[in-house]
Structures are given as structure tokens and as C-alpha cells.
Specification:
Elements lengths: L6 E4 L3 H13 L5 E5 L6 H9 L4 E2 L4 H4 L7 H10 L2 H10 L4 E3 L4 E4 L5 H14 L2 E4 L3 E7 L2 E6 L4 E4 L1 E4 L5 H9 L4 E7 L3 E2 L12 E8 L5 E8 L3 E3 L1 H9 L1 H6 L3 E7 L6 H14 L15 H10 L13 H12 L1 E6 L9 E6 L4 E2 L4 E2 L5 E3 L13 H13 L7
Parallel strand pairs: 1-2, 1-10, 2-6, 10-21
Antiparallel strand pairs: 3-5, 4-5, 7-8, 8-9, 11-18, 12-15, 13-14, 13-16, 14-15, 16-17, 19-20
Helix pairs in contact: 1-6, 1-13, 4-13, 10-12
Bound molecules: flavin-adenine dinucleotide.
The site of flavin-adenine dinucleotide (FAD) has 39 residues, from α1, β2, α2, α7 and α13.
């Protein structure tokens, strides 16, 4: 049985829209109000994926999928069984939005335009009768018995039988939740690239290396493509490591040493052997034209210069210690990070509502009945590739079911 008061969704981003639509799908008779403080809802969806919107990732095994979430992986396992990437693809297809998969697994609308997603959400919201309150922020919330009393920025008050909190990484949203008794894990940035002002590789901006392993002195090692930029290092491996090490890097004020392994498929001894074999069989050759692994030629030369190794001398004349040094630096090459920069302005926040205070079967608060959560407001974030939107769809879908309806 539904009470007379509406269900209110706070926040008109990806999670809020999906939660509101799920709510109308599961409870068509409910009055659903979506409150968005800005003029333009779905603002991040619009600019996402460089304007193409990377909707999800073609990773259909929940167990594999969760490895892409530095925070929230354990908690999302059950929810992904309820609503994962396949359900996302089907949901959009049912509404005429077809997705395509790129080589690296990222999924986009076939139109290559985020407008397709916006139009779908606006059209659906209109069709099912979601009431949109735009330019109306919620400033204050009080629980009064079984209902919520909400104070809007304009001074109006509304009552709600249930609340879905989808305010993303808004400090105001977290403050309201804190005042309701929830714990907010301190927010810090995730998904950023590393400025290396002293890097000798800055002039090689634009070069991509397919397979590099990046790590800090301790913690996770991440393997994948690396992109050299005019400010330092970027690319999937760097972004992924920034997400997994977001808290540690914040604690170090983004000043530390990153280690690159240019040859992650090789052991040190194998590299040394390759170099000694070059010396033995091609003593007339120079290092300039002979790299023991597959690296772009200008990068290889820049590395040798940086390691102060002459590449013009014949290898037969070089002492063995030079070959040992090259092998060692290929496996562990340190660079000093000075700060952080965003990549295509794409970032997420690590931190948010403490996950132990949420029931992930329903997305309901364990502290306050009838209060639900969806999206980045939670202490959940993923690496790049469509994983952050998948979190928004999954948690929005479940929260919108309002399983504990009164
Ligand atoms: C440039 C950029 C590109 C991105 N590209 C991708 C991508 O391609 N794929 C991907 O998976 N992820 C991407 N992300 C991450 C993704 O956009 C976010 O994880 C996702 O938008 C989070 O959705 P959300 O609904 O939880 O929060 P948000 O999208 O931040 O929405 C929260 C909404 O709540 C509103 N709000 C806040 N407080 C109040 C209040 N008190 N009252 C009323 N309304 C309020 C805000 O105005 C906002 O509209 C990108 C992020 C950025 C910044």
C-alpha cells in the first residue's frame, strides 16, 4: 500500500533519473518527484565520455565486474546479479537506444552522442509522469514519524513517504545525511593523471605504450596502456592506479615516486640475457637501433639519454654493467610526481556514505527506514570505462524498487 505522500528523489543526475524511472516501473501508481537544484539535469551525462557517454562496459560476469571498483566491489556483487551491464543494455534497447561495444569493452550509444541518453531519460520521465522540480535544491530534511519533511531552497516544504538520495558528490548532500546520523567517509579525488615536471619524456607527448606496469613503492601494480603527455603520464594504467591508490596519494599530497615497468612480460634475467646476446652476436650494432623490447624508437632513445647511456657506441665496446643497468631500469624506472591533473575533466570522488550503513539488497539505509541511496553519493567509485555509470544504473534500479514501501 502506498501512502499519500510522494516518493522524492533528490538529485537529477544519472542515478536519480534511473531511480525515479525504476520507481515508476515498480510502482506505477506512486507519485514520484525528482528534485534537481540546477537548471540542467543530467549535466554530467551530457559531457560524459567526451560527449559520447560511455554508458557501461561489456563485462557480463559480476565477479569480474567488481574488480573495477576500488571502493564498493564487495558490496556491488549482489546488486550486479540483480541489475548488471546486460540488464542495462536490455533496458536501453527496450526504449530504442542501442549500444555498441568498442575494442576495449567500453559501450556507447550507436549514435555516439550523449544526447541520445538524455532524450531517452527526458522522454521516459515525461511518459511515466515523473514530476520534475528544477532549480529547486533541498536544503534541509527532517524525519517526522514515518515521513520526511523537506525544506526547499525556495522556502517551500514538501512531505515524502520515501526518499532516494542521489546527490552525487555534493557536499551539501553529504552534510544533510550527516545531520540525519549517517557517516560520510571523507571525500578525496579519484581518476587523475600524474604531472611529472622534471620528466625527460615531456617532449614525447602523444606517444602511447601498449603494455606498461605502473606502481608506487607499495600497494597495487596496474598493467595496461600508458600515454605520454606534455605534463607527465596519463592513459588507462595511470588512471586505474590513481583510483586504487586515491587515499594513499591524497595522504602524500600527490608528491611521491611512481615506478614504470616498461617490460612487464619479462623477468630481469631474461632482459639481461637478451642484451648480452646482442653484445655477443652483433658487437658492431648500436643501442640506438636495438631495443630488447618493443618500444617506440624515439622513446627508447629518450630513455637511454635519461639513463645517461650512450646509444651511439658499438655494443661490443660497452661494459656488462651497462647492460645490467638497462635491464634494471626497464623493469623499474622511477619518476617524481608533483601534484595531479584531471584527464579530459573526467573524475569521480572516492568517499561518501559509509557502505556498512546501507543494505545492498534494497539500497535502504540501515539507520533510517525509507531512506534509499543511489550513485556516487555512496562511498563507491569505479575506474574509467563505463563502470561509474553502471554503479548509478544498478543502485538506482534497486533503490527505485522501494522494497520497504509503507
Ligand atoms: C567529465 C566527466 C565525464 C565522465 N564520463 C563518464 C563516462 O563516460 N562513463 C562513466 O561511467 N562515468 C563517467 N563519469 C563519472 C559519472 O559521470 C558519475 O559517476 C555519475 O554522473 C554519477 O552520477 P550521480 O547521479 O550519482 O551523480 P551526479 O551526476 O553528480 O548527479 C547528482 C545531482 O544531484 C544534484 N544535487 C546535489 N545536491 C542537491 C540538492 N541538495 N538538491 C537537489 N539536487 C541536488 C546535482 O545538481 C546533480 O545534478 C564522468 C564524470 C565526469 C566529471
Amino acid at each position: 500500500m502506498l501512502g499519500e505522500d510522494p516518493i522524492v528523489v533528490i538529485g537529477g543526475g544519472a542515478a536519480g533519473f534511473f531511480a525515479a524511472l525504476s520507481c515508476k516501473e515498480h510502482h506505477p501508481e506512486a507519485r514520484v518527484i525528482l528534485v534537481e537544484k540546477s537548471k540542467k539535469p543530467l549535466a554530467k551525462v551530457k559531457i560524459s565520455g567526451g560527449g559520447r557517454c560511455n554508458v557501461t562496459h561489456a563485462c557480463f560476469s559480476p565477479r569480474e565486474l567488481i574488480s573495477n571498483y576500488p571502493r564498493g566491489s564487495k558490496e556491488l556483487l549482489g546488486p550486479f546479479h540483480q541489475f548488471g551491464p546486460q540488464e542495462t543494455v536490455d533496458w536501453f534497447a527496450k526504449r530504442g537506444v542501442l549500444l555498441k561495444t568498442e575494442e576495449d569493452g567500453r559501450m556507447f550509444p550507436i549514435t555516439d552522442s550523449s544526447e541520445t541518453i538524455l532524450n531517452c531519460f527526458f522522454g521516459e520521465a515525461d511518459k511515466v509522469g515523473i514530476e520534475l522540480l528544477l532549480q529547486e535544491g533541498i536544503d534541509h530534511i527532517e524525519k517526522q514519524g514515518e515521513r520526511f519533511s523537506l525544506s526547499l531552497h525556495s522556502g517551500k516544504q514538501i512531505q515524502a513517504s520515501s526518499l532516494i538520495f542521489a546527490t552525487g558528490s555534493s557536499f551539501q548532500g553529504w552534510e544533510m545525511l550527516r545531520s540525519l546520523g549517517h557517516t560520510i567517509t571523507p571525500p578525496v579525488p579519484s581518476l587523475f593523471t600524474y604531472p611529472i615536471p622534471t620528466s625527460p619524456l615531456l617532449s614525447l607527448s602523444g606517444i602511447a605504450v601498449e603494455d606498461v606496469e605502473v606502481s608506487f613503492s607499495k600497494g597495487k601494480k596496474v598493467r595496461g596502456p600508458l600515454l605520454l603527455t606534455h605534463w607527465g603520464f596519463s592513459g588507462p594504467a595511470v588512471l586505474k592506479l590513481s583510483a586504487f591508490e586515491a587515499r594513499n596519494l591524497h595522504a602524500l599530497n600527490y608528491h611521491t615516486t611512481v615506478f614504470l615497468n616498461w617490460a612487464p612480460s619479462y623477468k630481469l634475467a631474461m632482459l639481461e640475457e637478451k642484451l648480452f646476446s646482442l653484445k655477443k652476436h652483433h658487437p658492431q650494432a648500436t643501442l640506438a637501433t636495438h631495443c630488447p623490447i618493443s618500444l617506440p624508437k624515439n622513446l627508447w632513445r629518450a630513455l637511454l639519454l635519461h639513463w645517461e647511456i650512450s646509444f651511439a657506441r658499438k655494443v661490443g665496446t660497452l661494459p656488462d654493467k651497462i647492460f645490467r643497468k638497462i635491464a634494471a631500469r626497464l623493469i623499474q624506472d622511477p619518476y617524481q610526481i608533483e601534484g595531479k591533473t584531471t584527464y579530459k575533466q573526467e573524475f569521480v570522488t572516492c568517499g561518501g556514505v559509509a557502505l556498512s550503513e546501507v543494505d545492498f539488497q534494497t539500497m535502504e539505509s540501515r539507520l533510517i527506514p525509507q531512506l534509499y541511496f543511489a550513485g556516487e553519493v555512496l562511498d563507491i567509485d569505479g575506474v574509467t570505462g563505463g563502470f561509474n555509470f553502471q554503479n548509478a544504473w544498478t543502485t538506482g534500479w534497486i533503490a527505485g524498487q522501494i522494497k520497504n514501501i509503507v
